[in-house]
Every structure is written in structure tokens, then in C-alpha cells.
Amino acid sequence: MSKNNLIQNILNDLYQYDPELKKEEKHLIKIINNLIKTRPNTKFDENFANQLRAQLMAKVEELKENKSTTFKFWPLLNLKYMKNLTYAAVGLTVIALLLVSTFIYLNQGEQTKLAYDKMTISQVGNNAFGSLKSTGPDQAAAVNQDATLPSKAAGLGGGGGGQALTEGSIIGMPAPDYTNYNYVYKGGPISLTETEMPVYKKIIDKSSGQNLVSNFTKVNFGLFNLGKFSNPELQNFSLIENRDYGYILYFSLSENLISIFPNWEKWPRPESACRDEKCFEQYRLKISDIPADENIIAIADRFIKEYEINTANYGEAQVNKQWLRAYQSTPDKSMAYVPETITIVYPLIINNQTIYDEGGNVSGLQVEVNIKYNKVSSVYGLSSSSYESSNYQIENDNEKIITLAEQGGLNRLWYNPEASEAVDLELGTPTKSLIRYWHYDQEKNLSSEIFIPALTFPINNLPEQTPYFYQTAVVVPLIKEVIEERFNNDGGTYPMPLLEEKPTSSINPHETTDEITDININE
Amino acid sequence: MEGNEANIIKQCQRGNLEKFGELYDQYIKKIYNFIFYKTGQKETAEDLTSHTFIKALENIGKYNSTKGSFSSWLYRIARNTVIDYYRTRKENFDITDFTNLSSDENLEDQTDLKQQLEKVQKYLLNLKAEQREIIIMRVWDGLSYEEISQITGKSQASCKMLFLRTINKLRKDLPLNILILLLLKL
After folding, report:
1. Chain A CB within 8 Å of residue B58 CB
2. Is ipTM beyond 0.85?
3. A30 alpha carbon, distance to own chain's centre
4. How many CB atoms lie within 10 A of CB A266?
5. Which of A44, A102, A217, A368 has a 20 to 30 A CA-CA distance from B180?
6. How far apart are CA B58 and CA B17, in angstroms?
7. For residue A38, pLDDT beyond 50
8. Do A314 and A349 meet the contact criterion of CB atoms below 8 Å apart?
């Protein structure tokens, strides 16, 4: 209906009620034209409409076929030898059934295109994702406790023996040597002029679970009527390659994620026959076994190309070298761990920005290369690429940002007042980045993946000889709500406390252990 | 479109279901908006819209043109889908509830209109549920009395009378410019 016809219809409604209003028609039409601009935004999404149309056309194919594939499962259970089947064998049979039905589907008519590869970013209104704080009002009080740890960690060491802990049996273990790290900004001036920046939220394509479920609901297991369940959706499924060096493909439709990992039954594992250290030793890799970075990347690239993995939304491959820092900081190299797999990361790119994790490391598609066999063993992070973008207020007080950086940013380390030494870490000029962040909605009990703007400060003088120091950068989020939650509620990250069991006595385990007497294990 | 629509429906009922896509293209936005006005949430509206069209596709063979227009049939499916959704959630929800609708995005620079709309919403909340629903369907969804009667199951005359009485009530409670705003907020 045209706008004019619509206006006339509305006027006729009014005139039916009150014919006197006709005298004011010109004025009414003027008001009407202006007020039409107040049409509410229903946020109609063309992407949604296109996806639903594709889903409906797939449904059309299903309805036209009007066939069902029936597998009589019950007769198999009647065979005598089925009594000896293990649960794993039954599981493999189910997988085979799913494989067959999937094969039948894929060979009848066109494939269902789920368009996970298409990068779409829909701009929505400001603060459209709601509050980015994860803690609710009840949690805030719990989080805001005094976070001081006891000056001495008391290990209550109750493993194995089953002896009840008594007052006399508590042993005090010496605390490890802690090093405090002071972050000192040595970079150039920071100038943030924006007041708000976009936050990106991954949008889950729900139609994929609906598109594919029809193939499985056709299967009649003979055990129950699957059709009685109301609108089931497929959440996840797996496919297996039963060949040497085969893979398992895991599809999480509810998260729009696909993972590839080894079908370990088909990969050689000679060390599984070992029963002593000498045997294990012969299979342990040495540092000289690790190929050069470019060779490892070449193996990953070849796999990507062979399986036509779409990397359009990812950047250049980078080698994850955290293992190497641990190796180099281990004094006795014979005891240092050399991994069997090296991870190559193809960083995710959203709106021309590289994605990092909260530790400042690139984040995206991970391809694991097995160094023993020079083959790719796993791929993680294959994901759909639909996002919404919503602007949120940011912190642009540069002095405050530097202060937060000097506190250690998102992964700040716990300050131990009794540390044996303190080391200054120099922070360089930061770069703008997007951080992969998990937002937890406490009311709905749901987590969603979002990407928030941040500043990443490189650590210029990494402590190379310190074992287990993995931090390479300090990340400061820029979204005000996130800063408020992460920096005002939590006093910092803490080392994992030593094993601590609730004693049966009334002794407070946090008290000094000076008065502990000898253990009498015969009591 | 009506003649063409009737032709498309017949083809669907004869088994040429690909034609349903043309019906979908014609109604997707209307049905989505209809459901959005009742739920106020984009994701919920998309979810229920999906269910509506899947049901319509599965049951198009049962549509009888002698009992009403295809449009009304489709809107009725949508309305029932919304009702079922809230019944399964066991919430005390009024399907005419539009209080979650955000009209702020279009009114950032029009503070006066925003305030007027808020007044409109307040007055509408004072109406009975069936009065509120007919205002929304007539004004926001732009449905005719014939369609409204087929969707709700009431007679056309009842729908018309209900609309006029509701307008009369609003006219007493609302100034003229806000009444116009209400009638043309679509």
C-alpha cells in the first residue's frame, strides 16, 4: 500500500469517528507526514532473511523427497555375538549409520551451503549487547573480598594414605621463591581521541542445526519414534576417517565451530608400548629435531591448500614459540621439554584488525604440525564469520591507561609482599588491537564471544631465563565497563595455592605452622 | 499480486514447492515486523519468524482460500507461534506487549517526539489487551479489518467497532497531536 493510500485510510478512520476533523485535513496531513518518520526500527536483518530463505529451500527438497531411510537396529541386538560388543563398537556403529545417512543426503540433489566463510559485519545501535560486565549484583560482593593470601602456604599433604588430618599432622611446606614484576612504561605519548569504539560480537547461525537435522530425523533406529520430539535441532556431530593418519572432524553447530583432530587409532604411537624410562627416552624429541619455522609453516600451508580450507578471514601464519621460551629458560636442557607438535596460528582478522588473546598473543585459526611425522595433526578455530558491531564508551584518559598498564593489564601478576626479588619490565608504545573476550551473562547463564578494543603494550625486556614466564605483552582493555569490572573488583591473578584440605580439627590452616609438632603416623 | 499469489499458492499445493520462495519474499518483512512488535527482541523475532515460515511451508497443502486470505492465514500462524512461545516459557506475557520496543534509535535528535511516544505508550498500557492488540494490528501492522477478523477470529464488525471505541477512549485521554502520532506510528 502506498504511503498516500495509507494516510487516507487512517484519515477515514478518524473521520468515521469524528466528521468534524475534516476541517483540519491540511494540518493533519502535514503532521502525518512528519510523524511517519518516527517509524520504529525493527532491526530487520537481510542476512537473516537470506539464511532463512536458504533453509526453507532445503526444507522444500526434503518435503519433495518424502522418503525415509530405515535402519533396523533391533535385529542386530538379537544376534548372540552382540552380547560381546563393547560400548565403543556400538558407538562406531552409530557413527557409521550417521555417515551413511549423511552420504545419502549429500548425493541427493544440491549441497546445503551454510556460508560459514562469508565475513559479514552488521552495524547495530550503541550498547546493543547490553552490559559487558559479567558479574551480577550478588557476585560483586563475593568478588570484592580482601584478596590477601596467607603469608605462608600451608600444605596439608593428605594424598594417598587416607589418614584423617589431626592437629599434629599438619605439615608446613616452604613457600616457593616468588619474583615480583614491576611494569614501567617507557613508550611514547598515547593519544586516544575517540569516546567510543566498536565491540564485535560473533553471531551464531542457528539455521545450520535446523538445515541438517532432517537428514538424521529420517533415520529410524527402531527403538523409539524420533518424530515425537518437537522440532529437534542438530547440535553437533562427528565424522571419522578410518585410514592411516586419518582425522576426526567435529562439528559444533551450536557454536558454529569445526575442529579437526587425529583419529589416534590410525596414527602410530610406538611409545604406548613403553614400560620404562629408557624406552620413552628413545622417542623423545630433541631440539635438533625441530625444523625451521618456514618448513613448519610450509607443512601447514600445504594442508590448508590440500583440504581447501578457507583462510580468507585470517592473516599470515605465525609460529607459536611459547614452548621455546620455556625450553631456553630451563637450566638442564636434558630435562627440558621439546613438544611433538608445533602450533601455527593464522590470526583472525575482523574489519582489518588482527585479533589477540588477553595475553597479547595472536588468536585465530590454529594448525598443529606433528614434528615426528611432518604432518598436520589438528586444526582448531574454523568458525563462522558473522558479527554484529556496536559502539561502546571507551576510556580515553591516557594517564589512567598507562596506570592500568603499569598494574599489569588484564593478566597482571599477583604481588607477593614476601617475594625474594623484584624485576622491572619495560613497556613499549602500545598498539591498538582487538581482544577476544568472553562475556558471561549471569542472568541467562550464557557465554558469548565478543571482541573488544584494547591497547597492547609490548614488554621490551622479557626475562629470558625465568621459567614459566609466558607473558609477552600487557593488554589494557579500553571499554569502560570492562575496565570497571576487571580492575576494580579483582586484586589480581594469583598463583595456584598449594593443596589445601579442610582439616578435621579446628586449626586454621592459614595460621603459622611454627607450633606444629612431629607427625605420629601410628595414631 | 492477489491473482498471482493465488496462482503461486496453487502451484505449491500441486507440489511445486520452490514457488513458496516467492511467497516468502513477499511476506518475510511483514511477518518479522508483526512478530517483533509483539516480542520486542530481534533474536526472538527471528527465531519465531523462522518457525512461522517452516510451519507455513509444511502446511501449505492445508490452506483453504475459501476460509480467508493467505495473508491472514500466515499472520494467524505467526500469532499462534508467538502465543505458543510464551506459553512454553510459562511467563505471564501479554502478546500485545510492545513495552520493550526501542524507538530511541530513530529519535536521538527529536526529543519532543520521543517524549510524545513515551506518553503514547503509557496511554496504550491503560487499554485492555484486546483494545491494545487491535490498535497495533490496525496501525502498526497496517492490517485491514478483514485481515484482523480472520487472524483473531472475531467478526469484521466487532473489529471495527472495537477500533472505533478504542480511538474514542484515546481521544478523551490524549491530546490530538499525540493521537495522530499513535495512529500513524507504523
Report:
1. yes
2. no
3. 54
4. 15
5. A44
6. 10
7. no
8. yes
